[in-house]
Specification:
The complex is a heterodimer of chains A (about 290) and B (about 375).
Chain A: H1 11-37, E1 40-42, E2 49-51, H2 55-62, H3 64-97, H4 102-111, H5 117-127, H6 134-141, H7 152-180, H8 184-193, H9 197-227, H10 229-236, H11 247-257, H12 261-285
Antiparallel strand pairs in A: 1-2
Helix pairs in contact in A: 1-12, 2-12, 3-7, 3-9, 5-7, 5-10, 7-9, 7-10, 8-9, 11-12
Chain B: E1 4-12, E2 18-27, E3 32-36, H1 43-51, E4 58-63, E5 66-67, E6 78-81, H2 93-102, H3 108-121, H4 137-150, E7 155-159, H5 167-184, E8 187-192, H6 195-201, E9 204-209, E10 212-217, H7 219-224, H8 229-234, E11 241-248, E12 251-254, E13 257-260, E14 269-275, E15 280-282, E16 295-307, E17 311-318, E18 321-328, E19 336-342, E20 347-350, E21 356-357, H9 367-377
Classes of the chains: A mainly alpha (about 290), B alpha+beta (about 375).
Organism (chain A): Mycoplana azooxidifex
InterPro entries (chain A): MetI-like (IPR000515), MetI-like_sf (IPR035906), UgpAE/MalFG_permease (IPR050809)
Membrane topology (chain A): Multi-pass membrane protein
Chain lengths: ~290, ~375
């Protein structure tokens, strides 16, 4: 470690100040405010607030609707994470195995990632449009009358599909670069030691990709929990009430549509804790099995 | 145990440049063959074609009599040792050794026996439960060897397995590889760019240049009768001196020096003359200028001297052509010194093609006895 001597002991803090200010103002301050207001019952019109202790938390956790949304969020997160990782990995493995014209394949698959997320969300939405959506037409061909925005199941299906579809290029890039970073000779040694390509993949290649996969697992869980907000919003906004939403969307609905600042804050604190616990669990139980080279 | 026949094998990459062209090698059962040549000569490509890691553009490769051109690497019954060891970093040494056997459905007790046997042979016992990253370079190299041995394959393929080791370890591992190969008697194909490694390990050398075979032969045969100027300059350290000379009648002119060959000469006119640094001696001052019979004298102007301890290498010029002389470390030195060469130790090469020219004055070399010794060792 290189040690730099500063003329004044305050100078390093001065250099750190802009970064610290950003973190404090945009991350810690809102969190503190959220925790604070989760203990108050706020007047919808801003005329003061009353301290209610844990009432907001108790109310939230006793609300059957909230619990149903939590259950859906868990399923949604699991499915989105699993399928976006699995498909990203599958495409990466296939693109990596292409010998002729692989640059073209890779560029085409990666370029999807360059599309801005809202645009991608919009395109995804159009797939499920009642009138022009090709997915709706394909479903109709198989006798499935898809009604996104009306049928709970159909909306959930579309939501998950679009959320997965948006995340695949991201996972693809990481998995592909991970695959290309594997030493060629190890793969060749495996080709001599093991005849079955599938077995080779699970016994040698995947374990070596595990650090990448673990990183992506955390990123994808976070993505499914938070960054799918836009997709959900486009899908359920201005639609009939009985549509699947996730916890993050519920926070937004209660806070900004329902003006229940206290309840919404309590929900967001719960969500924070859930993510914290999830991340700790992932590091505790999965990361230990990972071999970093 | 098996023979390997490489029959008119070529490798042509996209763009049409042949990396290997029409190579023929027949390897006997249990033989240790070393492919040697400068980088880019196609030796690794050839090895990888035998392993099945590279497709064969034309020709056939047979292992144990079976054509393996379209056989998967795993089904060729070969084991390969890679330059960077290619150990599975997430597996322990034991798992690394057992992996190939497990995938071949070898019964568990059998795997355990073979792993234990290999670990004992390679002194890997204490490290069986370690991961490769906790091992030194030499230990990793031994695990890579062990992974090949436990398989008991028809053939070992070595792709420059020692070039990542430091000089001292390389010498000891070289001995170990030779010893192990003798012990298990497995046919081996070994690639290296290090001519010393090639000389010491090989039963037969295959010298490659530009994707073609320059010479195949026992190390001492190649050393004493190089088939071309390329082989002459590649095998042996210091490299054989190669100078331009001219033959007129029975006399050979090298720069200012005239040597009377006195016998049937190989050719007339310009010729490339080769002689080993260690075949030159300091000529006694009294005889300088007038050589004794069967000897040639070259006037050497010394540029610089390299002290190797056991001997000294004197670098200088004869006329304007560089010549290196290996002398004993107590040999007298001076700026201008005549050196003598026995005529029988001269090699002649075609000045145009560089191919060896046979001539009747050439001294029979020591291969016969040396090869006999090797045979006894086996």
């Amino acid at each position: 470690m290189k040690r730099v001597q500063f003329s004044s002991p305050l100078l390093p803090y001065l250099f750190l100040a802009p970064q610290l200010a950003v973190i404090v103002i945009f991350f810690y301050w809102p969190s503190v405010r959220a925790i604070q207001s989760s203990f108050y019952l706020e007047d919808p019109f801003g005329f003061g607030s009353t301290f209610v202790g844990f009432d907001n938390y108790i109310g939230t956790l006793r609300n059957p609707e909230y619990l149903a949304i939590a259950r859906f969020t868990a399923i949604f997160t699991a499915l989105v994470t699993f399928f976006s990782l699995a498909l990203g990995l599958l495409l990466a493995v296939k693109a990596d195995a292409v010998i002729r014209g692989n640059a073209a394949y890779k560029t085409l698959l990666i370029s999807v990632y360059a599309i801005a997320p809202p645009v991608a969300g919009l395109i995804g939405m159009m797939f499920f449009d009642q009138h022009i959506g090709p997915f709706v037409k394909i479903a109709a061909f198989f006798g499935w009358e898809m009604k996104v925005g009306l049928s709970y199941f159909d909306t959930a299906f579309a939501m998950i599909t679009v959320a997965v579809w948006k995340q695949i290029p991201y996972n693809f890039i990481f998995f592909l670069s991970g695959l290309q970073g594997l030493p060629a000779s190890v793969r060749e040694a495996a080709a001599i030691d093991c005849r079955s390509g599938i077995k080779r993949f699970w016994t040698v290649i995947f374990p070596l990709l595990a650090p990448t996969a673990f990183f992506l697992l955390i990123i994808n869980v976070t993505y499914a929990l938070f960054d799918t907000f836009g997709v959900i919003d486009v899908m359920v906004k201005d639609k009939a009430a009985n549509n699947p939403i996730t916890l993050v969307y519920k926070v937004y609905m209660d806070g900004f549509r329902g003006n229940d600042i206290g309840g919404s804050s309590a929900q967001s604190v719960i969500l924070m804790l859930v993510v914290f616990v999830l991340t700790v669990l992932q590091f505790r139980f999965i990361e230990r099995r990972i071999h970093y080279t | 145990m098996a023979t390997i026949e490489i029959d008119k094998v070529s490798k042509i990459y996209h763009g049409g440049v042949p990396a290997v062209s029409e190579v023929d090698i027949a390897i006997d059962d249990g033989e240790f063959i070393v492919l040697v040549g400068p980088s880019g000569c196609g030796k690794s490509t050839l090895l990888r074609m035998v392993a099945g890691l590279e497709t064969i553009s034309s020709g056939t490769v047979r292992i144990g009599g079976r054509v393996v051109n379209d056989v998967e690497p795993a089904d060729r019954d070969i084991a390969m040792v890679f330059q960077n060891y290619a150990l599975y970093p997430h597996m322990t040494v034991r798992e690394n050794l057992a992996y190939g056997l497990k995938n071949r459905r070898t019964p568990k007790p059998e795997i355990e026996t073979r792993v234990a046997e290999a670990a004992r042979m390679l002194e890997l016992g204490p490290y069986l439960d370690r991961k490769p990253r906790a091992l030194s370079g030499g230990q990793r190299q031994r695990v890579a060897m062990g992974r090949a041995i436990v398989r008991q394959p028809s053939a070992f393929l070595f792709d420059e397995p020692l070039s990542n080791l430091d000089a001292k370890l390389r010498v000891s591992m070289r001995g170990e590889i030779k010893r192990l190969q003798r012990r298990v008697g497995t046919t081996s194909l070994y690639v290296t760019h290090d001519q010393l490694e090639a000389m010491t390990l090989a039963d037969r050398l295959v010298v490659l240049n530009g994707g073609r075979i320059e010479q195949v032969g026992r190390p001492l045969d190649v050393y004493h009768a190089p088939a071309s100027t390329f082989v002459a300059s590649f095998i042996g350290s210091p490299a054989m001196n190669l100078v331009q000379g001219e033959l007129h009648g029975s006399r050979l002119a090298i720069g200012p020096a005239l040597i009377d060959l006195g016998q049937a000469v190989p050719t007339q006119g310009p010729v490339t003359v080769g002689f080993r640094a260690e075949d030159l001696q300091v000529a006694a001052i009294a005889t300088s200028g007038n050589a004794s019979i069967g000897e040639g004298i070259l006037p050497l102007r010394v540029d610089y001297v390299e002290e190797l301890g056991s001997q000294r290498l004197v670098h200088g010029v004869v006329g304007d052509q560089a010549v290196t002389v290996a002398l004993s470390s107590d040999a007298p030195l001076s700026g201008e010194m005549p050196v003598a060469i026995a005529i029988g130790r001269l090699h002649f090469f075609d000045a145009g093609t560089g191919r060896r020219l046979a001539w009747s004055g050439s001294e029979p070399h020591r291969t016969a006895t040396a090869a006999g010794r090797l045979e006894n060792v086996r």
